[in-house]
Amino acid sequence: MRHIPRGLRALTAAAVTVTLLAASACGGDSGGASSSADGGKVTLRFTWWGSDTRTKLTQQVIDAYQKDHPNVTIKGEFGEWSGYWDKLATTVAANDAPDIIQMDEKYLREYADRGALLDLKKADGLDTGKFEPDTLGAGEFDGGLYGLNAGINSFAVVVNPAAFKTAGVAIPDDKTWTWDDFAKTAAEITTKTGGKVTGTGALGTNEAGLNLWARQNGESLWTKDGKLGVSPEKTTDFFKYILKLRDAKAIPSAEAISQDMNASLDQSAFATGKLAMSFIWSNQLVAFSKATGQQLKLLRIPSPDGQAAKNGSYYKGSMFWSISARSKHQKEAAEFVNYLANNTAAGDVLLAERGVPPNTEVRAEVTPKLKPEDAATAKFIQDIKQDLGDPSPAPPVGGGQVEKIIQRYTTEVLFGRQAPDAAAKAFLNEVNGELK
Amino acid sequence: MSALGELGSLRGKKPVGQKKDNLAGYLFLAPWLLGLFLITIGPMVASLYLSFTDYNLIQAPKWIGLENFTRMLSDERLHNSLRVTFTYVFVSVPLQLAIALLLAVVLDRGVRGMAFYRSVFYLPSLLGSSVAIAILWRQVFGTTGLLNQVLDVFGIEGKGWISDPSTALGTLVVLNVWTFGSPMVIFLAGLRQIPTMYYEAASVDGAGVLRRFFSITLPLLTPIIFFNLVLQIIHAFQSFTQAFVVSGGSGGPSDSTMFFTLYLYDRGFGNFDMGYASAMAWFLLVIIGVFTAANFFASKYWVFYDD
Amino acid sequence: MTTETLHRSLAARRASGVTWARIRPLVIHVLLAGSALVMLYPVIWMVVSSLRPGNEIFRDPGILIKDLRIENYRVGWHALTEPFTRYLLNSGIVVLGSILGNLVSCSMAAYAFARLEFAGKKFWFAIMLLSIMLPIHVVIVPQYILFSNLGWINTVLPLIVPKLLATDAFFVFLMVQFIRGIPRELDEAARIDGCGKASIFLRIILPLMVPALATTTIFTFIWTWNDFFSQLIYLTDPHMYTVPVALRSFVDSTSSSSWGSMFAMSVVSLVPVFLAFLLGQRFLIKGIATTGIK
Any idea where the ABC transmembrane type-1 domain is (chain B) (predicted)? Predict the structure, then answer.
């Protein structure tokens, strides 16, 4: 602070003391309003994002829990995705974070690595014994468990059988199909419908496609120690394949794809019936079925040589339960998370709204009660279990930005503004620059 | 700060016989001063301090001196966001103000049913930044949107206006111009302040519509035009919500709608780099400050006050 | 000017512009109606969408309704943890407080800046303008920490108290510009009649700046009603949620959204602002123009 006049320095120090340090990270118990105990009564704050359907179901579970635990009051705070993260960041910065946090893989390490989340392995009253073993990995790093899987997801190809029928094309066998088969099928649909329906949505509209591509080739988007694990060569191949799809008219125009990247699910090309196939997360099947009004089907991701076991699939946490490291009621919070994750009564209400339950006992209880689309998702998750690869490491700090970055470079490639190899290099450079 | 000291327009000629009245002045200013010291200054100084730190929102800030500012020199995406923002400011502000003024004058007098039209023209501004806008904009400017359907009737082949990097910014300019309601209302209120007797006198002199507009309306409206210009420029430099909502927060396609504030937000809340975001904010403050000061300086030559 | 010349000049004008004068209103109406339709298409589309079943909304960019459904309104009203009335009420409280605050505090500050001579005026004015030049995203965290230390989170105080303390420089500046349009002779006359600063403000300035006050009221209403970010941050308890926060809770970008309910409740939330505008714009008519001073 040598170059700053003393007066300004004093003023700065004063203002900062008042506003920042009073509630900064090192402070132990300065966060006032977050939760309060009063004669054995405990108030927990629980926050999640999602639409009104999720809000209703979650509130039902809260009500049921409060009935069984009269000493616990749970205040549910809900909101939509982007505002959710602004609010969470702000409250964490002010040492005023909610006790129980619905967390996404993107931001998990962002918060955990900086000490904002509790290591759930050390939490009292939380049991993960009945969890599918593969499902814990994504929330586990540096020897701790910072996010408990709240629902299983897998990347998949979604198929609109009606569109295949119109085109007169048979749905291929997803256990043996290769990327070439995939491209051929998609191109055939576009041709046979005269362009009315396009074969498929593009890869590269999120990072999961690249991750699978890397995993199929012995690499991985992220490594366990928090670095980029995909090479420029494989990324170039990935972009080249997207161009191949474009040139075969298997995917829509660059404009249409770029438009879809930030469209809401219901407004996207697949949801409005303009595509025969697309890449989605398995728990989105319900929403897409509702939007298209069709019975949709999930297929495995293609592989390089037609072996489904080598297509690199993995169980992703659709979202996670985390507990604030500064919660004053960690035990009560852990007990509630335990209820959400392991209690069959809670499972009966929540069903598969957040993804297929990772607790095998809850899943067995819930499966017969699922709506047809949810049941299809659950079955798909069950079916691919034998073909799974290693769990995919969570993105490192700064890695949450990768989706936006790959969207941008896919757009550049599709519009022909950058060649695949240049785009691959620039993409990796930029992602590396974001990592801390 | 010295540039902003040049607030020429406030100088106004002092009427003879009026002395300095510090007590009354500060009494009337008291609520604002209270707000300034209790609410505004603290967070502002804090953000200034943070701009010299590495602050990730979760851990305590670390002092790093000028590093954030030197980093801005080599940040290509930041330079791009400046280009986008400047283009947006210089295209959309004049367009929006011209249309707002034109409609305010047309709607102000003469034709019957004006109250109805005023409300109708204001309606889009009511929608403001709602999520519905994002949906609407895709329905109109998307690849299969309304605009392309209309163009199709005339045999013109449309395109994905929102998703083509070369036209996406244009749709945001249209969006901004479309919500011209606020400056229009301010113009309307300003027109109400022009004494009708001026127009009566001009009518008697046989002045036509255009002459009345240029010799009465325009000069007497300059304080309001000046206000709208200053505030709309500040507003356009800070433009965030519309680009955020339409591009889903990405500033895409290909950063073509990545406004400065959008990038700032992306760094601060997306990448947890609040120190850098604060540095960007203070840089923006300097830019806006220079433009505002220039505006005030220039206003001496074209804004007429009655006092 | 004599009445004779006046009559002559009016007659001459009448003769030259007979046909144009007759056509002109028609032309203006056609032009206005045409552009009104273009302006309104998206709004109409929104209303129409609110009357459609959710999954039809995105398949049809047209504005013809095949079967009219009002169930979006019924469902949307009760879709969240509280009935929508609660959110309307919460928004109403915030809006009323903000309007009151802005009207009182901004007009006082504006009067000081426009009419009173005091030491440091230019400096404070510059500071005031500077205070709105910093993007909200970098001050929101320090501000939240400040209000959180005051124990104001989950109350309407962080939303209303700043308005009571004239932190909205936009309106101060707006009123300054309007007050400067009021002829100074009026103040002088009142001063000679023995009025002090306060009564000049109350009896001369305030009544004459009704258009500016109406503008402030309208804008405060609309901007506060639509303001998402600060209401989202400061009101964390769902009982306290306001309309914009509630509206976004219908939408989830990653999974299923209730677009029908969202559009329906958006239309509902448009009604109060639209009424506020209709009502407020009446007051734009009053002011100097009708009092005919000078």
Answer: 82-295
